[in-house]
Structure prediction request, 742 residues.
Amino acid sequence: MSKAKRNKGPVKALYDFLCSIKLSIFVLIALAATSIFGTVIQQGKPHGVYAQEYGEGVARAIEFFRLDDMYHSWWFQVLLVLLLVNIAFCSFKRLPGAIRLMRYKDPVFDGKPVAIQERCEFKAKGVGAEEAAERVAALFRKKIGAPVREDRDGVVYLFATRGWWSRLGVYITHSSLFLFAVGAIIGAQWGFKGFVQIPEGESVRQVALRSGGTRDLGFEVRCDKFEVSFYTDPAGRPTGRPKDYVSDLTVLENGKEVLRKHIEVNDPLIYKGIYFYQSSYGQAGGRAAWLTVFGPRRNLVAHRVRVEKGRKIPLENGDELLLRALAGDFRGMGPAVDVVVLRDGKDVAQSVVLQAPQGNHRRLGAYVVRVDGVDSVMYTGLQVAKDPGVPVIWAGCILITLGSMVAFFTSHRRVWARVRPARNGVEVFLGGNASRNRISFERWFEGLCQQTREAFEKSVTS
Amino acid sequence: MINDKLFGIAMIVYLVATLFYIAHLVTKNRALGLAGTLTALGGWLINTAAIAVRWVETHNAGYGYVPLSNMYESMVFFSWSIMLIYLLFEHFYGYRSIGAFVAPLGFLGIAVVSLNPRISADIQPLVPALQSNWLTAHVVTCFFGYAAFAIGFAVSIMYLFRRRSERRGQSKEGGLLPPSRVLDELAYKAVAVGFPLLTLGILTGAAWANYAWGTYWSWDPKETWSLITWLVYAAYLHARFTAGWRGERLAWLSVIGFGCVIFTYWGVNYVLSGLHSYAG
Ligand code: HEM
Prediction:
């Protein structure tokens, strides 16, 4: 044995190694075991994070072995490739044999290398071989399928088979793994993943890529509106728990509207194979504020005047008020404006004024300013993705599901019968084998024997 | 709320079923075995009713969702799945002694979350990300798979005990537990049922992730651990049907596989999040 091993050429040795099921089990376990590192060690962080958490030496080791981005490391990819190579070689080696078994229909089993797993035998009196063979054949036809028959020296051999396609299950399943690999490569090569924030009323053409850089979409996406809705309790009062994030998006090609869609979490916009997923939101600043201003004599200078961002309104004696900036939420304290009083074009007083509960005024030089409301703008945060590999991945999903169902829950059953003339009657032998699920085959075969015996009723003698 | 009271009753009934099954295992008394099966079935019906009632109660609270969205709901569903698949197993293969090892798992599933004050049984509205039918498909397939693996685990433990006593010279037939040959086969059956279900569970999870975030796979710890579990069981099945492994090595692999299930389910939430939380 060991001698035979040594005498093999290196090519044959490599071939045997790549075909061996030991290699499959080793790679499966190795993938499982090494994958653990990536769940314990944070992935994709800068050096400092590892140095702080584990110390400089260990951090260096982590980076040397690429454990900081291990699922993309060369050695992890090598394991994955080894897996596929192993399966390909195994299939190449076994498929011809499997095809031979699928097409096998030789009724004569005596002296042949067929593994009969289940068997039963009995004698029947008062029937001829021909009639007995007919009875068995009829039963086969009913329980399995039309039998093939061969006669040899007065002995009748029958063979019937069912579910030959069950042997394809393994190959279907394994080919799905190649589809996953192909789909992943297509996605990595021709897809992208990015992120974009669009304030209400504005549109974008570029998205920031997760891998760095930006990408031109070739069309524009405008956010018309963003809204958060909240759950209400049974009495209809809002609970403050977000129920949904909703954006109204419009796609523009050369400035023309081509598509409108109301997107929410779990319901993306799809245009030209690019998906836009609702993923975050926030305050994008404000557009305008409503202000009330009192003059030096407590006189009303402006009452609930709408002022747009960057615009001025006249006060007394040629003074002006400039709305420099505004925010829908200023440091968590609610809406606020940044206003300046100008005299002869120069700043004389400046302040941030919060929109606060009634009566909250703010002195700016000789004036007093009150914020009555802020017309603020939200932005919607969208995850943007294109992955042309996804259909291939889905095909793989379908194949792996179908293939494993076939591989696990169906089996290729083959049944042989031999009817031999004997004294006053015949000797009947039944044998069978199944590619899988031997326990249920055993039970099924017992039933078959039982029914065959019954077909000979009283004539059965042993 | 009524649902958690019902879950409490189901838990106690499962405990009673466990006691019947153990009594049956020790005495070989058929009546005790039948009592075990009937109580287990009763407990499962109460468990079913509890889930249905909780579903109605989510609607009454104004949120209306399939109750499979948090630790409490998934654990009581885990118990429900374990007992369902076990009862089917018992029906098809007829080995009641397994009940003594599986019914306690059904009991524990509910007990762990009902008796732990840190796990809330309250009905909370779903955050937007969880409002998807994919969630239901994903949780149901995963937990059916986990339940089958739980049975594979219980039977493998029985196998290891049985082998130990056989090595000590006990005969291959007779004894408290079924013969090791039978246990070996039943453990394999359970894993062979669980594996396609886990495959579907991972696929529905990937489909959902793709639909909700645009990435079907992102190597996050939960995904990775479900893949680890899948690989371990794939190794188990291949070791068995191509390399011809049987017996103790395989039984240990089934135990390790179930360890991975538990880690995917609990460990990722409680251990790994703890590992990462202080750095983040
Ligand atoms: C859903 C998953 C899978 C199922 C249902 C499955 C099924 C099977 C079956 C039934 C066999 C036995 C073939 C025979 O005896 O002729 C087999 C063999 C094998 N499997 Fe899988 N398998 C699956 C996944 C995998 C994976 C993930 C790998 C990756 C390592 C793999 C690698 C192999 C290899 C290398 C063989 C031996 C070669 C062959 O028979 O073609 N399988 N598989």
User: Anything to note?
Assistant: Chain B touches chain A through 51 residues (CB under 8 Å). The CA atoms of residues 23 and 146 of chain B lie 27 Å apart.
